[in-house]
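REQUEST FORM: STRUCTURE PREDICTION
Request ID: SP-0412
Submitted by: Lab K.M.
Chain count: 1
Length (residues): 626
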Amino acid sequence: MDTPLLDAITGPEDVKQLSETQVVQLCEEIRCFLVDSVLRTGGHLASNLGTIELTVALHRALNSPQDKIVFDVGHQCYTHKLLTGRKAGFAHLRQLDGISGFPNPRESVHDSFIAGHGNTALSLAIGMAWAKKLKGEPGWVVAVIGDGAFTGGMVYEGMNNIASLNNLMVILNDNKMSISKNVGAMARYLTHLRANPKYFRMNRHLSDTLSEIPVVGPPLRAFLRRTKTIIRRSMYDSTMFEDMGFQYLGPLDGHNVRELEQTMRNIMVRSGPLFLHVVTTKGKGYQPAEENPGEYHGVSGAKPGVIPDPEVAAPASFSTIFGKALCEAAAANSKICAITAAMKYGTGLQFFGHAYPNRFFDVGMAEQHEITFAAGLASQGMIPVAAIYSTFLQRAYDQIIHDVELLKVKVLFAIDRAGLVPADGETHQGVYDPAFLSQIGIPTYSPSNYAELRYWLIKLLGQDFTGPQAIRYPRGGEADVLAQYGCTGREYDFLINSPEARAVLVSYGSEVEDVLAAGSHLEARGIPCSVCKLVKIFPFTDDFLHDIERFDVILFAEECVQRGGIGEQLVSCLAERGWHGTFIHRAVDNNKLTHATVPQMKKILGLDEEHLVQDVEKALTEKKEQ
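STATUS: Completed
RESULT:
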C-alpha cells in the first residue's frame, strides 16, 4: 500500500509542515492504512476511522508533548499513534511485545495518560491543567471525549469542577455511538444540538456580512459576540455546557480538517475553558464500518469486508448462552429484569432486549448507577440481573458494598469477560472480581462450560437463593475438553480422582483446562494426581474442604490476582482446620499483565500446563526428601 506522506511522519512537527492539500491526502492515507492494518491484526477500527481528521487537526494546532491530549476512551488514539512515529508498531498492534491499543505514557512521551475505561478524561485533564498552572508551565490540556462517555457520571463531576481554567479544552467527538447506540437524555440533547444548526448559520452569515461594512462593522460584530449566549438560548432553549462554565462552539464537521484546524487556532487565543462540539461518523470511509459501527468497533482480524448483523445471534459463546438462558428464565418469572451499561451486544442481552423490552435497561456508560439501580429494583421485589464485564464491575465497588451487600438485596451479578482477556492489556483484565467479591462475602460461581452456566444461572434466580449472588464466565466459547464433562449440579467435582494421589490440582473457570492437562500429564509420567473443579468458588463448603485436606500437596491455580484471591482465602481456611501440607498458589501478578494472547499470558504468569507440572513435581520431591 502506497502511503508516502504517512511514511515520512516521525512526529507531530512533520505534520505541521504539510500543505492543506497534503493534509487531505495524509488523512486518506491514514484511513487506507488503518483499514488494511487493523483488519489483519485486529483492533478498534470504527472509532479510529471516525477521528482521523480531528486528530490530524489537533496535532497541527497543538504542540505535543507540551500540550497534552487525553483520549476518552483511549481506543480512538490510533491516528495519534501514527502521527507520533509508531507506524511500524502497527504490525504487532495489541500483541506481545507490540504497541498497545490504548495510550500509554510508557510507550511515548506524546501519550499523556493510560486510558482504557470511559468518562475519565475530563477529570484527568482538569488535574493536568491545574498542575500546569501550579507549576507555571505553558500549554493546553485537551480532552477528546466521545459522546458515549457523556452517559457516564464522571464527566459531569468533572464539569462541575472546571472552575475558570484558561488552559483547558474539551472536544466532544459526537458520533451518536459508544459501542452500541447511545441511550438516555444526554443522547437526545446532543441530537437536538446536531439537528438545529439555525444559530450557527445565522451567526456565520451575520459575522461575514458585518465584516464587509466599514467603520461600524467591527463594533457590531463585537456586540454580536457579547450577545451570543442570548441568541443560543433563543435557538436551543438550553445552554448546558455554557451554564457549566465553558465557552461552547459547534457543532462542526469533524471530517473537514481545514475547518477544524482553523477553528482550533482561532479559539486558542481565548481563555478557556473551551468546549468544541465536533460531529463525526464512526467508521468513516469504510462502508462496512459505517453501516455497522457496533460490529466494527472491534475486529478480530478475520473475514475483512463481511458485514455481520448485530441483531442476529453471534456464534456460540458464554455471552450468548447467558443471554438466551436468561430469556428462558424471564419467560417463567415476570420479576426478572436485565441491566447493562452500554454493552447490550457484548453481554448477550440483545435477546432479552428484544423479548422483554419493558424489563430491559441500558443505562449507558454508568456502572455505578447500574448497580444502585439494580438495588432499587431488588428492594421492591424485582429480580435484577446486572450483566457487566469484570473490568467494569470494579468501577462500582462502593455501590456493591453499600447499596447491595449491606441490605442483602437479591441482585445477580452476571460477570462477563471473567479471567484473562487477550489484546487489550492491563486495563481490561477480569482478574479482580473474585478477590473483591469474596472479601465482602458475596457467593460466587464460576462455571467452566455452557451446561454449568445454564444450570447455575437458572438456579441462582430461583426462590432457594436470597441476597446478592455472582456468576462469572470467560470471554469466548467453551473448551471442548471441558464441555464433555457437562453439569452434575454439584458445587465441585473431581475430574480425576486417583486413590493413590498425594497431590490435588484445584481450579475454576477456564483455567480448569490447564489444570486438567497438567494432571493428565503427571498421571502419564507415573505421578498419581487428582484434579478438582470448583463451580462455587466462594464461600467454601465443609464437604469441599474435607475432601481436599487429605492431600499432602494442594496446587490452586486461578485467573485472579494473587493478593486477596480465592487461593489465599482457601489456604487460610485450611490452616484454621489444622492442615499442614504444602500449598502452591498460582495466580496473577498484576505487574506482569500485558497485551498478548491468553496462552502467552498464562505462560508469563506460570498458569500454563508446563509450569503447573513443574510446581507439583518440585513439591512432591521436597515432601519425599523431608
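NOTES: Residues 228-238, 303-313 have pLDDT under 50 and may be disordered.
Reviewed by: T.R.
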